[in-house]
């Protein structure tokens, strides 16, 4: 087995397709290529794809990740170019890299995600609202699940909230916990702010894992460096 890690973006109209449809789209694209994809066993074999973290419907992803297993080695640039030729507009592979077979799947390592809200107009009381959330000891929200509605304190899952200037206007950056250890959703945070009714575009800039006690992108860029240097650029580590 030869594992590879793909970094891709999901933008435009494709942000409205579900995670299941995204899996199907990649599976169909791979079947139309000569890439030696490894398949699962059983009655209905499927390409061995493992996405790092599902993306909420309607949210764009600038640097999303999936692990792909091949049955034979192949040059990274060939995988990228061949797959991009079959993917629809709005879905594009940005980078491909080989990974060690012994390395855990990215889905088990992801612990945070950076969400960005592009603000056409920055509400006057937004900064005060962010400070209020960061100073709070508890922030309870209601979350619906298969077993009904329950209250969850999302304050431990909010790592960072800040407003940053961009070339066009300003943006709200939210670094939130993600993954199986607990999470906060961007819509939950926005609903707690005094400036309600955010209609500006939300996207997920990148995902982060813990290494040596510090949050880094899968490619090894720290949160601080990412925000100061890579944020807003066409990066994929």
Short description:
By secondary structure, this protein is of the alpha+beta class. 19% of the residues lie in helices and 35% in strands.
Notes on the structure:
This protein has five helices and eleven strands. It is an alpha+beta fold and 237 residues long. The protein has two domains: 2-107, Alpha-Beta Plaits (2-Layer Sandwich), CATH 3.30.70; 109-230, Alpha-Beta Plaits (2-Layer Sandwich), CATH 3.30.70. Strands 1, 2, 3, 4, 5, 8, 9, 10 and 11 form a nine-stranded mixed β-sheet that branches. The chain has a two-stranded antiparallel sheet with strand order 6-7. Strand 8 (158-165) and strand 9 form a beta hairpin. The chain is globular and about 55 Å long. The mean pLDDT is 89.
Which characteristics define this entry?
Alpha-Beta Plaits, 5 helices, 237 residues, 2 domains, 9-stranded mixed beta sheet, globular, single chain, two-stranded antiparallel ribbon, alpha+beta
Spell out the blueprint of helices and strands.
Layout: E1 2-10, H1 19-31, E2 49-51, E3 60-70, H2 76-84, E4 91-98, E5 110-119, H3 126-135, E6 140-145, E7 148-153, E8 158-165, E9 170-177, H4 186-191, E10 202-211, E11 214-216, H5 223-230
Parallel strand pairs: 3-10
Antiparallel strand pairs: 1-3, 1-4, 2-3, 5-9, 5-10, 6-7, 8-9, 10-11
């Amino acid at each position: 087995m030869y594992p590879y890690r793909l970094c891709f973006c999901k933008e435009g109209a494709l942000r409205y397709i579900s995670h299941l449809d995204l899996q199907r789209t990649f599976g169909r694209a791979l079947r139309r290529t000569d890439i030696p994809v490894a398949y699962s066993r059983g009655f209905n074999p499927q390409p061995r794809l493992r996405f790092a973290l599902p993306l909420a419907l309607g949210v764009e992803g600038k640097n999303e990740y999936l692990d792909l297993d091949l049955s034979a080695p192949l040059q990274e640039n060939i995988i990228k170019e061949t797959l991009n030729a079959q993917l629809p507009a709005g879905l594009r592979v940005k980078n491909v890299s080989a990974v060690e077979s012994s390395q855990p799947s990215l889905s088990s390592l992801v612990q945070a995600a950076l969400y960005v809200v592009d603000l056409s107009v920055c509400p006057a009381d937004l900064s005060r609202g962010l400070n209020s959330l960061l100073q709070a000891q508890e922030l309870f929200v209601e979350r619906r699940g298969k077993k009904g509605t329950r209250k969850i304190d999302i304050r431990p899952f909010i790592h960072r909230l800040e407003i940053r200037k961009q070339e066009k206007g300003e943006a709200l950056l939210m670094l939130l916990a993600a993954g199986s250890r607990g999470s906060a959703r961007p819509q939950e945070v926005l609903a707690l702010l005094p400036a309600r009714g955010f209609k500006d575009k939300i996207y997920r800039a990148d995902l982060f894992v813990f290494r040596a006690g510090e949050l880094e992108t899968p490619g090894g860029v720290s949160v601080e460096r990412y925000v100061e240097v890579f944020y807003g650029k066409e990066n994929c580590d």
